[in-house]
Amino acid sequence: MTSLIYELSLVLIVFSAISIKEVQSQIQTINVLHVNEDNYRVAESSVKVATLYANRKEDLKMNVKVETATGYRTDSNKTLESLCKTYGTMLANKAPPHLLLDTTRTGFASETVKSFALALGIPTISGSFGQEGDLRQWRTLTPEQQHYLVQIMPPADLIPELIRTIVLQQNISNAAILFDDTFVMDHKYKSLLQNIATRHVVTPVNPADVKTQLIKLRELDIMNFFILGGLDTAKMILDTADNLDYFSRKFAWHILTQENEDVKCNCRNATIVYIKPLLVDPYRNRLNTLRTSYQLDGKPQILAAFYFDLALRSYMAVRSMLGFNQWQQNMSYITCDAYDMVKKNTPPRNQILLKKSFSEVTGEELAYGPFRMVSNGKSYMQFDMELTAVGVRDGSPDKSVKLGKWKASLDPNSAIEYADSQSLQNYRADVIYRVYTVVQPPFIYQNSSFPRGFNGYCIDLMDHIAKFLQFDYEIRVQTEGGFGQMDDNGNWNGIVKELIDKRADIALGAMAVMAERESVIDFTVPYYDLVGITILMKLPKPSTSLFKFLTVLEHEVWICILSAYFLTSLLLWIFDRWSPYSFQNNREKYRDDEEKREFHIKECLWFCMTSLTPQGGGEAPKNLSGRLVAATWWLFGFIIIASYTANLAAFLTVSRLDVPVESLDDLSKQYKIQYSPLNNSEAATYFKRMANIEKRFYEIWKDMSLNDSLSDLERAQLAVWDYPVSDRYTKMWQTMRDSGLLNTLEEAVAKVRTSRTQNEGYAFIGDASDIKYLELTTCDLQKVGEEFSRKPYALAVQQGSPLKDQLNSAILNLLNMRQLERFKEFWWHENPFRVKCEKQEDQSDGISIQNIGGVFIVIFVGICLACGTLGFEYWYYKHRKVGNVIDITAGSKDAYDMNGENINKEPVKMPQKDLSDSDAQRFKTLSVYPRARF
What we know:
CATH topology of the largest domain: Rossmann fold
Number of strands: 28
Transmembrane segments: 556-575, 631-654, 852-872
Protein name: Ionotropic glutamate receptor C-terminal domain-containing protein
Structural class: alpha/beta
Membrane topology: Multi-pass membrane protein
GO cellular component, one term: plasma membrane
Strand order of the largest sheet: 7-6-8-9-10-13-14-15
Radius of gyration: 57 Å
Site (Interaction with the cone snail toxin Con-ikot-ikot): 688
Helix content: 40-55%
CATH superfamily of the largest domain: Response regulator
Strand content: 15-25%
């Protein structure tokens, strides 16, 4: 039984092989309706070569008959007319099409063919452009229709996907994609770089004005250029870019083409990443044979091979289905006129598995690469793209470096196979942002000794951000308009205008976040605390004088004291001279007193002077009248000394002078100090707008008060005596305009320094950070009052720029690392330009040498006068004229007069009465110093 079954199986196998051989030996006639775009030569010639090849190749057993219709990309009616006419002719000749071969690319022609094939149920192989969902007429195909309505993407639809791969792997933030008519990008404007944080522009090349096109793209801050097109188009763009000096480390140029020749341009010094199809060895001989034997020489080569393989495999798929009875028997066709759009009377196509048959075709080598069949919008020919870095110097190729290759794929994660992992990194555009700033210490210093020519708080901040985000930047100083203000017409100046006009990427510096600025540009998260507006004034210094102890009393008081001194001294002399009870007039009465003093003029002056000192005046007069004068003088001196001492302590101590202006309110209430902000500054804008708001409030209040439609109750509620809103800012703004708004901070500081006192002069109202820095680096200026209208500092970017989110991430990272606090600590508290000043609050309460130094001068002058007097006394004593000297000493034998005669021949006889002590003293003195006789 088993042997019988085995013999029957062998018989069946032999019979099947014979049947297959007989089927294959039959020549199948295949009718093909070919639809090609008008003047699309490469597809037309490739299909003709494929048809010729199929008819000549005897082992294929095919007789392919092709009827051609023309598709018009911009005219669907003409396309449909051509289709129906050709199709009707084939039906009339009883040669209905087995296959509709569609080589239209996109536009109305492609959509018309898709609609035609769907409606009439014609098996179709299409080489049109479009990924999944792009073919609008085939978006809702049923599973049955998907078997015989097949689309395979051409290479030009797959090559742009490499741009997505490069952008992702190189982290490119901006890109311009320029393409010519060899590529179709209509369906890729949104999908190519979708969900990628890359600012990009996809635009066709404008051959009439490429220069203007490149300039506009550069104004959009685009540094990475991708050219999709032929080499002639690439040469035109590269030559124009060279004339515009667009070849530097800021730019990156990529050329993606279907051609396989070398790139050429008249560039002076350019490096270009050149990407072209790579024909691998298994298919090289096949393509060369087709080119030499069948004249498959369409350009570009990869596209000609694609259409050849597409057509040939389509023929072979239909032949296979016909030969194996997989084709629908007695397949019906309807004409274009017979189709009913309402009833949708499309003939059924249940048994036609065209996609499966196409993917299973064997027996013929492929010309360029295998086909990967998935579904419409996901099926394509597999091929490789070679990446090469090409250098051009003075219009001639310099050197080329192979970077790697890329296997064409729709997978967004498909990677480039690099020859060196860092090879493409060397040819990427350096991310260099244009940073505009305003020099404003300590945020921005202009210092040529640093690499970028600047340093400061914001430079440290930007360096850390650049390191975190891996970009470079160049700084430009905005000399006019500062950070930017809006005029009455809504026009901007300064850095804000540069951002609006796309000439700047980042605004760096002490730029305050303001509502009107946020309407035209974007701000990052703040990097610095709230900073407001404050007042700068000259620091008052207490007056000092070496003879300040003399200023305790007014000049009139000093004159009166001196007058009283001389008058009292004179009275003492007079009373002592004429009083009978004075010592000099009544020596006998005071003979036994120990204190004996004659008050002549010199003694009176000395007595009155010493009475004013702690030493005291010494012996007082003996007479009562003199003592009354002395007592009166003592009482007078006590009062004067007490008053002088009390005031001297206050005058010589460091005074704590109160600044008359301590706030904006104080400044607005006085009139001796002029004040104003800088012209067109944020402070000026603040006061101008506050004054305008007060004016508007007044107008609203006035309209309410004078409204005739108000009831008596409503009018009574508004009938107040005082206007409820003050006009402080209106008056201040008028005062500022009268004072004159200065143009530069240097002018304002110079004018502040011209203030004579703290009660007269000029006060500057400006940014608190500027005023704080001036106070930090000078010793004669001070910040007065609290800050008002406080706003944070932040970086600014162009409106809608993706750079905003990146900067936000970097700033928040620095904030978390407390790096911003370190910047602030260094540039404010450890600033190299900081000046160590002696503050009033740091001074002791003692008397300074500046105020008490005159006392030492008085001592020095007194010592000098004493030394001079001593010298005069010595000179006078030595050179005085001596008269007749009589020796009255007892026992003296010789006494001579001036003529030399002896006048003392006998001893002098002294009185015998007792001498008083004073007389004895006088006698002793006369004995030692004989009295001269005149």
